[in-house]
Design goal:
The chain folds into two domains: about 170 residues, no CATH class; about 100 residues, 2-Layer Sandwich (Alpha-Beta Plaits), CATH 3.30.70. It has nine helices and four strands; from the N terminus they run αβαβααβαβαααα. By secondary structure, the protein is of the alpha+beta class. Helix 1 crosses helix 8, helix 1 runs antiparallel to helix 9 and helix 6 packs parallel to helix 9.
């Protein structure tokens, strides 16, 4: 009978440890994903900004020398990532491939213009700077028009700071939720051993002596949960970098390493603090209060 009870208690103990580790790893995994977004938010913003092209349409009477000079000056400009000349014939081919038919046969002529597509550096993708660049280029006699997505640029200008603020707010909120969830799991784990704690106290063990094994056990569980969370975050990071290498998510190696250290520290610190206060609570209870 005693053996069956001991086995039951052992299974219950293992189940308690397992639930604590799973709770810690899941919460820290989600916190790690949010951390990945935060540390790469600037990288993501740069990437999407640099996808907004500046198209310079040239007049039909533009000379080849003028076009080459403009292209070279654009390539050397501080705001340029790359500049590509697209002839009207190449543009017609691209449009035909996009719509799936040769519209030139229907029209009988090519209505498109020679152009230069400019990819800008993210620092210069703002409404004011783009207007200055467009006005400077439009002043040339052989330039017909300069176009870019003004609406999208304005949306970036208005929303990027708001989005960054709310991401930080949600990060802080999620960190608080993580602390509360992990604390709840630890408290339940310690609650299952409240009679053991009180028994040790009754035979003369000091509070520090009683707390020590509980704290070390919880810290080990916190480290295990943190490592499981880090493995999950690393797997997600590897997958995203493999699918979208142009985002450069692996470039911030120092910040990513700092994120992993942060997850480990959070797992250890929260379990230590939670176990300390949970054991302290039961140490301060009277024996008859343990049943409530």
């Amino acid at each position: 009978m005693a053996t069956s009870f001991e086995k039951y208690q052992k299974r219950r103990l293992i189940s308690s440890y397992f639930s604590v580790v799973i709770s810690i790893s899941l919460v820290l995994f989600l916190l790690g994903l949010l951390g990945l977004f935060v540390i790469n938010s600037n990288q993501l913003s740069r990437y999407f900004k640099e996808q907004i092209p500046l198209s310079i349409y040239l007049k039909d009477n533009a000379k080849e020398v003028e076009i080459n000079q403009l292209k070279q000056s654009l390539e050397m400009a501080e705001y340029t990532k790359s500049a590509t000349y697209v002839s009207k014939e190449e543009a017609a081919e691209q449009h035909s491939e996009a719509i799936g038919e040769d519209y030139l046969e229907f029209l009988g002529y090519n209505p498109l213009q020679n152009s230069i597509d400019v990819e800008l550096l993210a620092e210069f993708v703002s409404s004011d700077k783009l207007k200055e660049i467009a006005n400077e280029i439009s002043a040339k006699d052989f330039v017909e028009e300069v176009e870019y997505d003004e609406v999208l640029v304005e949306l970036f200008d208005k929303n990027i700071k708001v989005i960054s603020f709310w991401v930080l707010v949600f990060s802080a909120l999620f960190l608080v939720i993580a602390v509360l969830l992990i604390n709840s799991s630890i408290r339940l784990s310690v609650y299952s051993k409240r009679f053991t704690i009180k028994t040790m106290q009754m035979v003369g063990a000091t509070k520090r002596f009683i707390r020590r094994p509980f704290i070390w056990k919880s810290m080990r569980l916190g480290i295990l949960g943190s490592f499981l969370a880090m493995i999950g975050v690393a797997a997600v990071l590897f997958f995203l970098d493999k699918e979208w290498p142009q985002l450069g998510l692996m470039d911030n190696t120092v910040l990513v390493a700092g994120l992993f250290v942060f997850l480990l520290v959070v797992g250890v610190v929260i379990t230590w603090i939670s176990t300390f206060f949970a054991t302290q609570r039961f140490l301060n209870l009277r024996t008859d209060e343990l049943y409530y």
